[in-house]
Design a protein that fits this description.
about 350 residues, about 10% helix, mainly beta, 17 strands, 3 helices, rod-shaped
């Protein structure tokens, strides 16, 4: 086979190409020989949505409401020479601790996983052959993977410690009077919060498309139209963030209220004393460890093979050494590809 390809300056020969085509059609019509027509069409549509979630978790180690109260009242009275002693010793304490941990696994979402293989073969015989081969592949996928949006609170307790003391001493003539209060109000609050998220992987479309179109006939004139359209549309969202970890969010209140009153007549001694302490000790630790986040809208591979050939080997007494193939698209672009047996007269 010899091959003549017209491009560039050869485009000026487009009128000649069309003239040859018109002449060949006229020959076919005059001879009245049969023709062949074959239309092949494949339409593939894959539409998918995927959501994978291991997040959106809430963990609270301690959300207690603690209240410790001490209310004391001491009152002492003595006669003439006697002594009077009134004393209060009290303590109110809250110890609150909490731990919250969240460990999520991996989240993986794929909207569409598709493998599409299309093989179209058209074989025509006779003088005139028409072949249309069309492939339409549409992959549309959406994927969301989430292992985040977690909340962990180690300690969110409400602690209240109160000490209320009242001491009164009253002695007679030469006696002594002592009134004393000893009190302590203490809150100890601690908390730990940890969040460990897994990986989040999202793929909108993971597709492999392979198209093989072949038009191979033995016609004098072959008009082949081969068309392939592949559309991959994907959206992907992957998230491991948006986490909140609070080690200690406690509300602590420690109060000491003391009242001491001592009264002695004449030569006696009077002593009034208060010893009080109010203490809050609050501590907390928060940790967040996130995994990897990967989002791929489209991961696609497309392979297209198109072959259009015509090899006429018919009645040479009637048609001679004539074999012509036209690609419709090439004609529109003013390019022609002719394949003829050696010695053909065109």
């Amino acid at each position: 086979m010899t091959e003549r390809i017209f491009t560039g300056d050869g485009a000026r020969k487009a009128p000649l190409t069309l003239a040859v085509l018109a002449a060949a059609v006229a020959i076919v019509l005059a001879l009245g020989t049969g023709s062949a027509s074959a239309d092949q069409s494949a339409d593939v549509t894959n539409d998918g949505e995927a959501v994978a979630n291991t997040g959106g978790n809430v963990a609270v180690g301690n959300a207690s409401d603690n209240d410790a109260d001490v209310d004391q009242d001491a009152d002492a009275h003595s006669g003439d020479d006697g002594d009077a002693v009134a004393a209060n010793v009290g303590a109110a304490a809250n110890v609150s601790d909490g731990t919250a941990e969240i460990h999520t696994g991996d989240a993986s979402a794929v909207g569409v996983i598709a493998e599409t293989f299309v093989n179209q073969i058209s074989q025509g015989s006779g003088i005139f052959a028409l072949g249309d081969q069309s492939v339409e592949v549409d992959n549309d996928g959406e994927a969301v993977a989430n292992s985040g949006l977690n909340v962990a609170v180690g300690n969110a307790s409400d602690n209240d410690a109160d000490v209320d003391q009242d001491a009164g001493a009253d002695s007679g003539d030469d006696g002594d009077a002592v009134a004393a209060n000893v009190g302590a109000a203490t809150n100890v609050s601690d908390g730990t919060a940890e969040i460990h998220t897994g990986d989040a992987n999202a793929v909108g479309v993971d597709a492999e498309t392979s198209v093989d179109q072949q038009s191979d006939g033995s016609s004098v004139i072959a008009l082949d139209d081969q068309e392939v359209h592949v559309d991959n549309d994907g959206e992907a969202v992957a998230n491991t963030g948006g986490n909140v970890a609070v080690g200690n969010a406690s509300d602590n209140d420690a109060d000491v209220d003391q009242d001491a009153d001592a009264d002695s007549d004449d030569d006696g001694d009077a002593v009034a004393a208060n010893f009080g302490a109010a203490t809050n000790i609050s501590d907390g630790t928060a940790e967040i460890h996130t995994g990897d986040a990967t989002a791929i809208g489209v991961a696609a591979s497309v392979f297209v093979n198109q072959v259009s050939e015509s090899d006429f080997d018919g009645d040479r007494d009637r048609f001679g050494d004539l074999g012509i193939v036209f690609d419709v698209v090439d004609l529109v672009d003013h390019r022609g590809v002719w394949r003829c047996p050696v010695g053909a007269k065109i």
